[in-house]
Amino acid sequence: MQISRFAKQVSTTALVTAAALAVSSSAQANKELEQLAKQNTNWVMQTKDYGSTHFSEMIDINANNVKNLKVAWSFSTGVLNGHEGGPLVIDGIMYVHTPYPNNVFAISLDEPDKILWQFKPKQNPAARAVACCDVVNRGLAYAPAGKDYPATIFLNQLDGHVVALNAKTGELLWKMENSDIAMGSTLTVAPFVVKDKVIVGTSGAELGVRGYATAYNIKDGKQAWRVYATGPDEDIKLSKDFNSANPHYGQFGLGLKTWEGDAWKIGGGTNWGWYAYDSDLEMLYYGSGNPAPWNETMRPGDNKWTMTIWGRDVNTGEAKFGYQKTPHDEWDYAGVNYMGLSEQMVDGKMTKLLTHPDRNGLVYTLNRENGSLVNAFKIDDTVNWVKKVDLKTGLPIRDPEYSTHMDHQATGICPSAMGYHNQGIESYDPNKKLFFMGTNHICMDWEPFMLPYRAGQFFVGATLNMYPGPKGTLGQVKAMNAVTGKMEWEVQEKFAVWGGTTATAGDLVFYGTLDGYIKARHSKTGEELWKFKLPSGVIGHPITYKHNNKQYVAIYYGVGGWPGVGLVFDLADPTAGLGAVGAFKELAHYTQMGGGVMVFAL
To answer: How far apart are CA 377 and CA 480, in angstroms?
Structure first.
């Protein structure tokens, strides 16, 4: 008996020790990535850091000398279609990705004319046929070396596979199937590394895909957890205290009750946008997308939990809170956009905040500890589907004139399905307490129609006509206070500013334009200080890094994505491309396809 008791004690001690080591190891990996993100020599995440600030403290390039920026070097990827996201820079190596076929290149910053290694995956070309809006890819992710794995680059392939590569050699470490293209589910999202996991979303709501997010172990690709946006609570992984701070948001059973019958099984809610993470709270933040189909008549109810901002425990995937921004969405306002973290004063108290500019034309600022709504306001005063958000209930007060139900001709809806904000990553200057946003300014007419669901085929049910908004342009850039809702400045752009912004302590905001410019504006005033015409239009974001004590700015060129589908696929019908062709009919007169990265320095 004594031996048995002793063995049990040893066993228990070993398990506790192993668990502690595992927690310690993953926490250490987390901290290492955070430290790398703070170093000016690196750009280790698509979002720059876990807070998704897209902000650099560097001042070598600043408002006084940015006019002297010149091309330092460039690299052609040899791939057409839209180049979203941005390159990564880690330890003197730039990692470049492409849209389908999703090639990856490692380039030495000491010898940028030399490719260190390249990875060209073999994948199912059928994925191209079910990709919604061009065959884009939003970027790579990086994990520092751990006890059981080398420094790793993660790639999501359009055909639904997640790939892990040795960052030094390009060797394939493991490959895992995340999505089934036979059902219309593809991968365009950038992976997101947290602790010992890599987080991956899904695409395909336009084909009736049921959306989910998955955490894979960095070491071997084994699934750690998976959470859905619709269905039973156990699939959505709601914690016991889910929305306890805001029960009026809704709590349990609603992933089934707010759908008619089994419609939740083909109900959308995919998440192909961006993540943020608070390492103190160990909480992951992201948005679920639009319900399917777009025709609202075919899916009565609030359709939870699509269109929702999630706050989840990154270790288990359990949801601590979920705030649905657009219940029963009628306009394809997919809510997967940028999540920016900041700490600011609210009612005299320093508060952990999450700010989210949504496709629906509203900006939401939440307390990221419990999901409480701090403010919700219009990105632009021309937003008309909603009058305002009731801050007590969190519900939008709609204007029925702009509803899209079957017996109503909906015209002049602002914003369009493209949203006043789409997939771009924005930036936050913690010194100025301002977010800088590249936005769309596009409105639409909407004609719904009935259609059956067929696996792997488009399940939309609406014909859209899109056109410039009331201010006469297709894009804007804005500086915004996310607590008060005040816009410090705004400027118009001829075309949508699709890819997002990057801000620096040198009083600069960089961004690219669809007609092929990279621009720098003064972050205090919005004054244009510099621009350069690139070989093709921009739908990705700039990055900045330092190498050999010199600051550089880099950006992808390569027009495409949803706004470029008409140009990319040579479409003429203004309703084609889910309405994008009509909105961007002039784009082909200003730029053409071509993919690569351009790097600038003083």
So the answer is: 11
What is the structure's pLDDT at 3? 35
Catalytic residue among 49, 332, 445, 507: 332
Q: Which of 396, 392, 391, 390 is nearest to 361 (CA)?
A: 396
CA–CA distance, 287 with 291 (Å, rounded to integer): 13
Q: What's the rounded Cα separation, in Å, for the pair 291 and 211?
A: 9
Contact indicator for 568, 550 with CB cutoff of 8 Å? no
Query: Pairing mode, if any, of strands 55-56 and 501-504?
Result: parallel
Residue 539 DSSP one-character state:
-
| Residue-wise pLDDT tens digits, 175-231 | 999 999 999 999 999 999 999 999 999 999 999 999 999 999 999 999 999 999 999
Spatial separation of the C-alpha atoms in residues 127 and 131, rounded to whole Å: 6
**pLDDT tens across 408-436, in order?**
889 999 999 999 999 999 999 999 999 99
Residue 304 CB: number of other CB atoms within 10 A? 28
3-state SS, residue 587:
helix
Parallel, antiparallel or unpaired: strands 223-228 and 93-97: unpaired
The beta strands (E) that lie in 18-131 are given as 55-56, 70-76, 88-90, 93-97, 104-108, 115-119
CB atoms closer than 10 angstroms to residue 240: 7
Q: Residue 15 in 3-state DSSP?
A: helix
Annotation says 332 is catalytic: yes
pLDDT 10s digits, 123-144: 999 999 999 999 999 999 999 9
DSSP single-letter state for residue 9: H
Give buried/exposed letters for 112-122 (b at 16+ CB in 10 A, else e).
Answer: beeeebebebe
Question: In sequence order, what DSSP letters do the residues of 182-226 get, joined into one string?
Answer: GGT-B--SPPEEETTEEEE--B-GGGTPPPEEEEEETTT--EEEE
Which structure tokens are listed for 290? 């639009």
How far apart, in whole angstroms, are the C-alpha atoms of residue 78 and residue 565? Answer: 19
CA distances from 519 to 139, 207, 393, 527, 530 (A): 22, 36, 40, 10, 6
Structure tokens at 333: 């306002």
- DSSP 8-state class, residue 333: -
Q: Please list the residues that pair with 378 across neighbouring strands.
A: 362
Vertex 422 angle, CA 62 and 77, to 5°: 65
Give Dmax (Cα) for the chain. Answer: 86
E strands in 452-568: 462-468, 475-480, 487-493, 501-504, 508-512, 517-522, 528-533, 543-547, 550-557
Classify strands 517-522 and 528-533 as parallel, antiparallel or unpaired: antiparallel
Tell how strand 88-90 and strand 93-97 pair up.
Answer: antiparallel
What distance in Å separates the CA atoms of residue 296 and residue 346, rounded to the nearest whole number? 37
User: Residue 232, preceding bond cis, omega within 30 degrees?
Assistant: no
Give the bridge partners for 117, in sequence order.
Answer: 106
CA distance 562 to 424: 12
Tokens at 494, concatenated: 């001829």
Listed in sequence order, the residues at least 6 apart from 247 whose beta carbon sits closer than 8 Å to its beta carbon are none
**Per-residue model confidence as pLDDT tens digits over 351-380:** 999 999 999 999 999 999 999 999 999 999
- State the SS3 of 412-466: EECCCCCCCCCCCECEEECCCCEEEEEEECEEEEEEECCCCCCCCCCCCCEEEEE
Beta bridge partners of 212: 228
